[in-house]
Amino acid sequence: MPTYTVFSIEPPASPSQLAAYKTLRLTSLQMDPQAFVSNYAREVAFSEDVWRERLDSPYKRAIVASVRRNHDASHPTCILPSWPHSKKLEWVPNWEIYALYAMWVHPAHRGKGVGAQLVNACLEWARTNVDIKFLNEKGGDSEKVVALLVYNDNVAGRTLYSRTGFTDIEGVPAEEGERWMLARV
Ligand SMILES: CC(C)(COP(=O)(O)OP(=O)(O)OC[C@H]1O[C@@H](n2cnc3c(N)ncnc32)[C@H](O)[C@@H]1OP(=O)(O)O)[C@@H](O)C(=O)NCCC(=O)NCCS
Fold it and tell me: Which segments of the protein form a coiled coil according to its record (predicted)?
């Protein structure tokens, strides 16, 4: 049984980390298109700057797990942008909302607890991250939450999220077949 190392890609990402991340994300969109709101055709057309912004933005963090020790080539991933990036997520005035997205574990590594390790690492990053922009705009009186969108028929995803502390968000509009889930951190 392989041992997994879960780590965050510290900005600035190296060229090899950037290339590995891009390959990983595009592979996930090809292998599990039904799981994601985005799609391969959209992201394969992204410029290098868009990929770099995903990894180097001070408001986002990519968390990956690797079966290797060199922290370059990795299989599973999730990425966590913080509040200022998504107007859509401003539901409650004093919530500092982090969005967890692009969660994926390569099929060869599923069912071994890697997904749960990744989600927990994301929750920990959100718990400890200080978002200066949010603090300046909203002040200190806020509650940190992590939110995500999952399709109703994604049993693996919904089980993973409920096992890691997420519950359905009441009263937030979602498209047909989707639901928002939330964890307080
Ligand atoms: C969802 C996904 C990330 C889960 O990753 P994983 O590494 O297999 O998950 P884990 O092994 O950590 O399992 C976490 C929990 O979910 C459960 N689970 C995992 N896959 C499951 C499945 N297919 N059916 C039911 N439960 C499942 C596990 O039993 C475990 O629960 P437990 O703690 O009670 O044992 C993976 O299946 C995946 O990448 N799917 C395709 C992409 C996707 O759906 N992403 C989410 C988009 S919102």
Answer: none
